[in-house]
Structures are given as C-alpha cells and as structure tokens.
Amino acid sequence: MKSRKLSRTRRRATILTAAAASVVAGVALLPNWSAGAAVVDDPTVDAKTKATFQKLADAFFTDRTDALVDGAQSKRDKPLTAGFSGHVKLSSGLSRTEDSARDTPEGRKDKLASLGEEYSKANTAVTLNATRVEGRRATVAVTETTTLTYAQARGNEPRTTGFQAGHELTFKADRHGNWQLTDVKDTDSGLAVNTLSKPAVKAPTTADDGDTMPNAPRAATTRNPVAVPKTGTTYDYKAMAAYAEKYWNVYNKDYPDFNGHGAGGDCTNFVSQSLKAGGWKHVPGYVYDYTKWFGTADIQSDSFVGVNEWSWFAQNSKRTKPLANVYQLEVGDVLQMDFDRDGSKDHTMIVTAKSGGVPYVTYHSNNTFRRSVASLIASYPTAYYYAYRT
C-alpha cells in the first residue's frame, strides 16, 4: 500500500495516538506470569547452553538404553537426567512420560533374555547437529550413537551391536530464562533397539500389471529350524557383508542417500549396493520396470531403492529364493519386514554375520550394525518377516 502525506498537525496527532495504543497493546500482550515475578527477556542460547543441551540429551538416551542392560548400569537409584537442574533440565511432564514408558525397553530386555540374548553394558554418545531458537523455544537436532555389548559372547559370535538414530529435541524457557526439555521426537524410521516410537511404514505398493510378480511367502520366526546351508558359489557373500559393515554409518559417496525421502529411507538402496559389491550385475532398462535392476550415482531403478520393487525383481529374476524361517538366513542373505502386516513390505536388511544359529543384520534407516534377528523379533513380534536366499 502506498504511503500518504499528512499535515504536520495531523501527523503529530497520529503519532501520539499510535503511541498510546502501543502502550495499551503492549500491556495486553505481556506474558501472563504471576504478578510481581521477575521476567527476563527472551533468553539467548550461547555455546555453554548448547553444550548443556547436548549433555542432557546424552543422559536422556543413556537412561533409555540402560533399561536394556543387565547389571549395575541398569540399577541406578536415579536416572541420569535427575542430575540436571537450574538453567537446563528435564521437564516434569517429560520425566513422567519417560518413567511410565520405561516398561517398553524393560519388557524388550526380558523378551530378549527369553530368546537367549542379553547385553552386559552400553555406551551412548550424542552429537549436537543444529540449534534453532525462536523466542522462548529452542529446537535441537541431535544424533545418538549407541554401542551395546553382547553378554557371554563366545567363539566367533559378534561382541557388539550398534546403531545411530536422529532425534529432534524441544526446549522451552520458563519466565526466569531457564530451559526445560519438553519433547523428544525420532527423525528417522524408529528402528533403534531402545526406541519408544513405532516404526515408519510405507503406503501399500502394487505391481503395475497386478498379477505377474510372485508374492514372497512369509517366514516363520521359531528358533532352531532345519538348517539350509548355502551351496552356490556365484556370488561373493563375504564381500557383501564387508561392504555393508564398512558403510553402515559412513555412507558411500558414489551413491545417493535416500534418508529423509519418506518412509523406507535408504535401507533398500544400501542393501542393493552390498549385493552389487558381491557380484550382482546390473540389468539396464526403464527405471519403473521392476524386472530391471541398476544403480549409480546418477540414476537408480525403482527395484534398486524400493522395498517392494526389490522383492519383485529378486524373485522374478530368480536371483533369490524364499526361506521358510528367518533363522535359516546366512551371510549375504536378505531379510524384509512388514510392520503393520498390510501386505506392503517396509524395511530391508542384509545378514552380515551368523553365530550359534542366529543371523545378525546390518542396515540403514536407522544406521545399524549387527543387530540380531532375535532382537528384531523381540521388538516387533507381530510383524511379518520375509527371508531371501541370495
């Protein structure tokens, strides 16, 4: 809107009227703190405050993980977050929420123990990635990196498992300018072993022609099935596992990263890279044709990066065959999951180790290293599982 010229008298009257109105509006818009209380201006977040944000986040996720561990580490008199007070601390509301939700990881620990898996210790570290401050609200992006040590590992059994998980933390400042952590959200697929949230699921996907692609049969999850050893020598399964364990948390720059591109993330892209490292050859063609399979830095077929499309290609091409039980998986084999049992698969993983009859999978979204199939079943007992011999 264009400005208008006013006479000096009218201009002075207008300014005085606006000033009076401003005072009244200012009084009306003051925060509703109790009368006479000291109220600070919107607080700033300096380097020291950011460091305390990070330390509190570290304590918060350590408390969650400790609920999975046997021994003294899980039996502290008070959670680590109880040690924070004053300028930065956990809000009472979030503290109550965490206390009431603690049954989830503890129940998961008991279920794991019944399947023969226990953790003797854990180490959690949090990296602060970014902080955004708007008035009395601070939004903090962090990455949690946790390593769990398997109890009583023997022989060639994996000694540790690990994962990375992204989170968004919300801090709110009270009237004195002190910050309280009020909310924590997962920013990836929610597949960490200590998570309290449900995993992200993909919308149902169907083949273009409706009926030419075989529907993978579900695999049982009972222990000690009849073994099905690998007999083929076409592919280098050790190379598949080595690739996956090299790039589980440091991504190969020769391929795009699909994290943050909706449900599913980078999991199938990562497994396809691992299979390619072990000898799977490209089948060039149209990107939407699920009978083709190829992936480079510049272009990828849907079957290279899509959970269901990969399954269709793998079966149609005869590069895989279904296994009846998840415990029959061997190194280089692939495991998929359908969390909500709607017929559309949600997640893809590759086996990188096996010991004592238990396969250990490595995957992206969340970045995870050598998680046991027993742990997956304990965490998601109602999911559908699909096991592929490669």
Protein model, in words:
The chain has 390 residues and is an alpha+beta fold. Helix content is 27%, strand content 23%. The chain has helices at 8-29, 47-66, 92-101, 103-114, 237-246, 267-277, 302-305, 307-316, 373-379; strands at residues 88-90, 119-134, 137-150, 160-173, 179-186, 321-323, 334-338, 347-355, 358-363, 367-372, 384-389. Strands 1, 2, 3, 4, 5, 6, 7, 8, 9, 10 and 11 form an 11-stranded mixed sheet that branches. Helix 4 packs across helix 9 and helix 5 crosses helix 6. The termini are far apart.
Total beta strands: 11
Characterize the main sheet.
11 strands, mixed
Structure classification? alpha+beta
Element string (H = helix, E = strand): HHEHHEEEEHHHHEEEEEHE
Mean pLDDT: 85
The gross shape turns out to be globular
Strand coverage percent: 15-25%
Q: Ranges with pLDDT <50 over ≥5 residues?
A: 1-37, 207-211
Radius of gyration: 27 Å
Helix count, DSSP H or I runs of 4 or more residues: 9
Features:
23% strand, disordered N terminus, 390 residues, 11-stranded mixed beta sheet, alpha+beta, single chain, 9 helices, 11 strands, globular
Fold blueprint:
Blueprint: H1 8-29, H2 47-66, E1 88-90, H3 92-101, H4 103-114, E2 119-134, E3 137-150, E4 160-173, E5 179-186, H5 237-246, H6 267-277, H7 302-305, H8 307-316, E6 321-323, E7 334-338, E8 347-355, E9 358-363, E10 367-372, H9 373-379, E11 384-389
Parallel strand pairs: 1-5
Antiparallel strand pairs: 2-3, 3-4, 4-5, 4-10, 6-11, 7-8, 7-11, 8-9, 9-10
Helix pairs in contact: 4-9, 5-6
